[in-house]
Amino acid sequence: MFIGIGLFNLFGLLYHFFMLRMLPPIDYGHLNALITLFMIISVPASTVQTTITKFVSTFQAKNQLDRVKSLLRHLLLLMLVIGLSLFLLISLGSSLISSFLQISSYGLIILLGASLFFAMVIPVPWGGLQGLQKFGSLALNLILNGGSKCVLGIVFVSLGLGLSGALSAVVVSYLITVILSHLILKMSLSQEEKRVNPELNPVERNGTDFSKVYTYSFPVGLTLLCFMALTNIDLILVKHFFLPIEAGYYSIAQMVGKIIFIFSFPIVMVMFPKIASLKMEDQEKKARSILGYSLTTGAFLCGGATIVSLLFPSLIVQFLSGEVYLECVPLVGLFSINMSIYSLSLILLYYQLSIDQKGFLYPLVLCTLIQSGLIVLFHKSLIQVLLIVGLIGLCLLVINLYLAYRPYQGERKEGFT
């Protein structure tokens, strides 16, 4: 998963690197705006993938593959309807969107809608593969998605298709990945069927109630929304309260922190289904053992990267931007520390989601509101903003450490019936 996510992000950087150099500045500005809009709208799809991972892991542990298939069919149909509705809505409103973004071509907006259609569908097979713990197959899909977008983008733009070619590469990469991931998921389910003894877990013939799936998706969605706000709202507020040049320095330094933050993603993607698949009788001891390994790995990786950032901030800024901006140097270390803290907090949040604990939501929402309020009230300097972000992150980390390691309470839920 480290390799898969690492190459996926690398291909994303290369895609922007080449598009920036192959497209005129105005066209690249349009492309960047469309991709940013794509990322914002597709964020809720992560909720679907996490929810699928949770329930597929639980059902696989009980050898209830019929429930796995039922869940995947239900949510695939739902996401197809949502994706198609989103595509039609964007296509019908293409004139308004193009006017708002100051893009003259309606065709580009339609391509955006097509990419969002596939972005709504892809979490179903990816969540299925993650829940079945087919990490190699999932990593392959990530690499293929990022690599095909990068390669096809370069080819299409080289052929003279310009901005349309650059955006078409996004659509085609998702189309390829959707088809491949569904085929791999189908084969994986067939392999699981051969392994399972149906006499041990006879199929229940009563109807399947999906209400618990939707109920579980709410805390997942709220968690992702709040965490996205905690790690991104500072940049938006800095752009509002500070001069453009200061916001630019802040953005350059933030890149270092976001690179460190990426280290937590593969840890979470492996930890979550492994804990969710544990049986009730041995959940507490094994779950906390897995959590301990996850936190240790995260602390080692993020801590090492933070030390490098503190020792060589100038070299890092020069490597990322091509120049040494002295104003960025004092920000790099603080960003690294902050993102390391939030990386460990993310591991703890997903741990609690995996064992069906919801108590962390209250402090998470509260921390999100307090951080935004403090930055609005106190923003005399960029350092002050970063100190606020770090303080809130530290409080969130301490609270979640207590919630994760307090005496075990409650029983795991049985999934849906």
Largest sheet: none
Number of strands: 0
Mean pLDDT: 82
Catalogue the unreliable spans: 202-207, 410-417
Q: Class by helix and strand content? A: mainly alpha
Share in helix: over 70%
Kindly estimate the percentage of residues that lie in beta strands according to DSSP: under 5%
Structurally, the number of domains stands at 2
Query: What is the first-to-last residue Cα distance?
Result: 32 Å
Helix and strand run: HHHHHHHHHHHHHHHHH
Q: Helix count, per DSSP?
A: 17
Radius of gyration, in Å, reads 22 Å
The 3D shape can be described as globular
Write a compact overview of the structure shown.
By secondary structure, the protein is mainly alpha-helical. The protein has helices at residues 2-22, 25-42, 45-61, 65-92, 94-100, 106-121, 123-131, 135-158, 162-195, 211-241, 244-261, 264-276, 283-311, 313-321, 329-354, 361-377, 382-405.
Explain the overall architecture.
The relative contact order is 0.11. The protein is an all-alpha fold and 417 residues long. The longest helix is centred in the middle third of the chain and has 34 residues, at 162-195. It has two domains: 2-195, no CATH class; 211-405, no CATH class. Helices cover 82% and strands 0% of the residues. It is globular and about 60 Å long. It has helices spanning 2-22, 25-42, 45-61, 65-92, 94-100, 106-121, 123-131, 135-158, 162-195, 211-241, 244-261, 264-276, 283-311, 313-321, 329-354, 361-377, 382-405. The protein contains 17 helices and no strands. Helix 10 runs antiparallel to helix 17.
